[in-house]
Amino acid sequence: MTIQKFIIATYNVNSLRSRLHIVIPWLQKTNADVLCLQETKVRDEEFPADAFKDIGYNIVFRGQKAYNGVAVASRHAISNAEFGLGDPQNSPEDEARLIHCIISGIAIINSYVPQGRAVDHPAFQYKLDWYRRLKRLFMERYMGRMPLVWCGDLNIAPEPEDVYDPEGLEDHVCFHIKARTAFKDVKDLGLVDIFRKFNPGPGHYTFYDYRAPNGIKRGIGWRIDHILATNDMAEKATSAFIDMDTRLAEKPSDHAILAAEFSA
Q: Is the pLDDT of residue 73 over 90?
């Protein structure tokens, strides 16, 4: 990178058209270089691409009606955009859950990992398999070849300090040991948790369930949105933060924006 500052952010919008009043002003305020969006919940033909183009952002996206959907917005050119996991099992749902592309010489992986429903549900095994397939994509296409940043709602709280009640939640699909191990298997390819590089300890959450009364005030949260990077990018990271203003805004998503700043 030849620029002095490079901001990469991730946001599960929980319906993009319902959160444009948060997304567009945030981009204008921060001039973020890359924003990865998940759960856009909009078909491609209805995607509000002009809202991004009008403020100088390029945009690639893949969606489905009412659920899933991912997008990457960038102030820089986006090249080599591909959707899904690129294996024989690749499906339209996979394509609406993952975009990988190259921006300013950096591989950007934006993923909305399946939640898993319940530990005894087939969807949980699908989630574990999805992580294995993602690991294969990283190994075959990216690791050791170029700088990489992996963003998204990864639906995993990796460590006890990443949830408000680790004992009570040990069997939850987003904190179960099998899910955490699947996440670690990908991370162990050589990826650094950028947020944790700068923010140790408990109480840092990106997700607060709407259904928990006064959940934010009571600290009933999860850290399931992440920005991870290869060592060459991690060495350039200068800060990382959760923008709680986006969770406290009018008509918010149940997630906050997570952002990291990198230097040249």
A: yes
| DSSP classification of residue 77 | -
162 is catalytic: no
Long-range contacts of 243-250 (CB under 8 A, 24+ apart): 243/26, 244/216, 246/11, 246/22, 246/26, 247/208, 247/216, 248/216, 249/21, 249/22, 250/21
Write the pLDDT tens digit of every residue in 203-244: 999 999 999 999 999 999 999 999 999 999 999 999 999 999
SS3 labels along 107-154: EEEEEECCCCCCCCCHHHHHHHHHHHHHHHHHHHHCCCCCCEEEEEEC
Nearest CA to 202 out of 252, 160, 253 is that of: 160
Marked catalytic residue, from 11, 57, 112, 131? 112
Question: 5: which 2 tokens?
Answer: 């500052």
Closest CA to 148 of 34, 242, 69, 240: 34
Q: Can you tell me whether residue 239 is helix, strand or coil? A: strand
| Per-residue pLDDT tens digits for 12-47 | 999 999 999 999 999 999 999 999 999 999 999 999
* Residue 188 a catalytic site member: no
Active-site hit among 153, 193, 243, 254: 153
Taking the C-alpha atoms of residue 18 and residue 38, their distance in angstroms, rounded to an integer, is 13
CA-based end-to-end distance of the chain: 6
